[in-house]
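Re: alpha-D-ribofuranose structure - here you go.
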Amino acid sequence: MKITIFGSLNYDLVTSAERMPQPGETIGASNFETHHGGKGANQALAVRRLSSQAVSVEMIGAVGNDTFGNELLASMTKEGIDTSRVKVSKTERTGIASIFVDPKGENCIMVYPGANGTHTVEELNLDTFKGSDLLILQNEIPLPVVYKSLELAKKAGIKTMYNPSPVYADAPLDVFKNVDYLVVNSTEAQVLSKAAPIGSEDYSPEQALSALKPLQKTLGCNSIVITLGGSGSVYLDGEETGHVPAGKPERIVDTTGAGDTFLGAIAGQLIGSNKPLGEALAFASKASAIAVSRHGAAEGIPYLREIE
Ligand code: RIB
């Protein structure tokens, strides 16, 4: 079995402070750390760490010809991920994410794509994802490339999992007919369903459950997962719906990458262990509860042996 992740690799520059700065304001920070990140790379690591060894994991992406890129590539390769199709750009530096974290572990992120922006539609063909059982995509590489990849995978009979993050309100709806598993948070679900913003941070589980069917009707995806932070997640799988409570973190220090951990865990359970979606979410909830208790996106992702 093989899972391919086509997406971003970033070097995360993480600054912690008592609160987020306001526009035009300078505030003192309490800590600074660098971590490995990028939604694509995080999800690839999560699949690798949280799947059985029967699953092979490939990352397709791009880094710059610089120290950050070398470090990211070396660590992913060391973990057993096939990085042979991660390009080293001659013109662009490795993607950078400037991340601010507050004492509750919440974050604000600004991403400079760098090499992640160098992929083109012309590089893709029907054989690009050949041999994969599942292709995972996010929105940190050029959108035409994401959309074309979904289309090609579907044509080649490969299952697709799509995490449209960051989300764009003008995303063409016909893209989603090529998505088998859509994984979104509450904000992304509201944007894609064109629902009026509900004015709070997240849907309640009840609100999210009632948003699932209309979203499925609008987008045409068979399976949809909406993540709800501390309220867990809800899912629609064909006709079946359910709510899965969140795992119980020992503490919350950094939520960066928790969603990527969650998605990677689901993918491993579905493809590697043939679990139904509801069971995959229960497993993923435990994994992301561990991720939020640790610093760093990639570094915080737990290993299979840590999940009870
Ligand atoms: O999802 C978390 C990731 O988003 C971070 O690692 C950062 O690189 C941004 O891409």
